[in-house]
Amino acid sequence: MSEAILDEVSVLSSIYCGPGEFQLLHAQDGILVQINSTIGGERGLNLSLSFHLHDRYPSCPPDISVSSTSLFRSQCHNIRQKLLEKAASLPPEPMVHQLVECAQQQFVEVTKAYRGGREEVEERNKQGEWTVVLLLDHIRAKNRYVGLLERWTQQLQLTGRMFLGPCILVVLQGARADIKEFCRLLKTVKVDVDSSGKKCKERMMKVLIETPLSSTCGHSLQDFVVKHYVSLSELTTAFQELHLTEIYQQILPSLSNWQQTGYHGEGSLNPKDS
């Protein structure tokens, strides 16, 4: 650990000296500094910031994660993006304290927006978060199709995975109403092309499972990522890594049946018009 990092850690531990405010963890290629605080008094929003200081820090900015049980994941993601942009713009010198202050500023703004949209927040909390797995028949216009799905997940504040391989799966997590809107868009917007190259809608999508997030061991995904796989064993491993083994076991019979009856998969030239 460099002298610059040691000095900064010493200063940070002095500034954030309240119970549970500061925590230092060792990582393989540096250290993790975690700072927990409450914005707006005891009843304010809780904020947890984690800074991964690599061995080359501060020559390179730290990796940053933001979490809060009081905010939506999308709000935490937005704050994280602003912190990363801020870190990239700062000179190569100790910056963690400055980034913490920036995060707290962002939280004040989020608090105002949170209070302004309180009814919407309460309604989402009533719905809770759900996990849904969709099965797509085929994809021909891959860039267009995937691009639209990525845009919709961002607009609807959904997270998940898209698995491209023998079976095309889309795993979504978020508010149930937003997931339903995603499915509506999927069936009403021309997302792909048919065998003649004409734009067409997704009419063969199947919902394999929909279940409250709490019933999937409570693990939530942080973003929407597209992944390729070539075998069922790779797909099995991917679901295990996402802590969605239980869901995978429930959809496996449908996937097996899909393969036995003849799936079309990514980029196949299925003569049926979608």
TrEMBL record:
Does the keyword section mention S-adenosyl-L-methionine? Answer: no
User: By its UniProt entry, which Pfam families does this protein fall under?
Assistant: RWD
| Cross-referenced InterPro entries | RWD_dom (IPR006575), RWDD3 (IPR038840), UBQ-conjugating_enzyme/RWD (IPR016135)
UniProt domain RWD: residue ranges: 7-110
Arranged from A to Z, the UniProt key words for this protein are: Cytoplasm, Nucleus
**UniProt keyword annotation of NADP present:** no
Q: Name one GO biological process term.
A: positive regulation of hypoxia-inducible factor-1alpha signaling pathway
What GO CC terms are in its UniProt record?
Answer: cytoplasm; nucleus
UniProt superkingdom: Eukaryota
Q: Where in the cell is it found?
A: Cytoplasm; Nucleus
Q: Which PANTHER family match?
A: RWD DOMAIN-CONTAINING PROTEIN 3 (PTHR15628:SF1)
Tell me what this protein is called.
RWD domain-containing protein 3
Source species taxonomy: Eukaryota, Metazoa, Chordata, Craniata, Vertebrata
